[in-house]
Amino acid sequence: MTIVRRATVDDASSIARVHVETWRASYAGILPDSALVKMSADRQRSSWSRVLNRLEGHQTVLVAEAASGVIGFGSCGSMRAGSGLAYRGEVFTLYVDTDHQGQGAGKGLLAALFRSLIEQGMNSALLWVLAANPAQFFYQAMGGNRVAERHELLWGATLPEIGYGWADLSRTVGAGGPCSVS
């Protein structure tokens, strides 16, 4: 059984572990190997500790937790400036440990992130994903529409990204919606 809950500062180490492991598994062959090798759970823990200590108004960090501990995390908040797109909220991160993918944790996290945005008065959201990441098919299955493309400079490589948008989060997480959970 997986539960989704708000992250606390005590979750920083677990979030960091999932962050590093999922990036190395998901982005091998997409991001430069040198960037993936340099990733450190200690640096990520420090970074996530700072984030969790300074969460502001329209920011949320959630974790998915199973009997074995934290297996995934996600974050969201107000749409970042500069996209030129008419969405109110944005999902910044969503990662699930590879051993637990396909078991509902990602859907549960995404639905909870969307509900958090709705509670904060944001009924639409955007999420950016690397074009070569197979997770894009998950976002399509969750009702995301391909609404934008951009190129992002990451670790010396210019990589294409796809923006998935949800215009009506209430419908998306509501009964019968693609991201509804019981």
Notes on the structure:
The chain has 6 helices and 7 strands, in the order E-H-H-H-E-E-E-H-E-H-E-E-H. It has helices at 12-27, 33-38, 41-53, 105-119, 136-141, 169-173, and strands at residues 3-6, 59-66, 69-78, 89-96, 125-130, 145-154, 157-166. Strand 2 and strand 3 (69-78) form a beta hairpin. It is globular and about 40 Å long. It starts with a strand and ends in a 9-residue tail after the last helix. The model has no long low-confidence stretch (mean pLDDT 90).
Key descriptive features of the protein:
182 residues; alpha+beta; Aminopeptidase; 7-stranded mixed beta sheet; globular
- Strand % is 25-35%
Strand order of the largest sheet: 1-2-3-4-5-7-6
Our Rg estimate from Cα atoms comes to 16 Å
CATH architecture: 3-Layer(aba) Sandwich
The helicity comes to 25-40%
Question: Under CATH, the topology is which?
Answer: Aminopeptidase
Short structural summary:
The chain has 182 residues and is α+β, with helices and mostly antiparallel strands.
Helices, strands, pairings?
Layout (H helix, E strand, L loop, with lengths): L2 E4 L5 H16 L5 H6 L2 H13 L5 E8 L2 E10 L10 E8 L8 H15 L5 E6 L5 H6 L3 E10 L2 E10 L2 H5 L9
Parallel strand pairs: 4-5
Antiparallel strand pairs: 1-2, 2-3, 3-4, 5-7, 6-7
Helix pairs in contact: 1-3
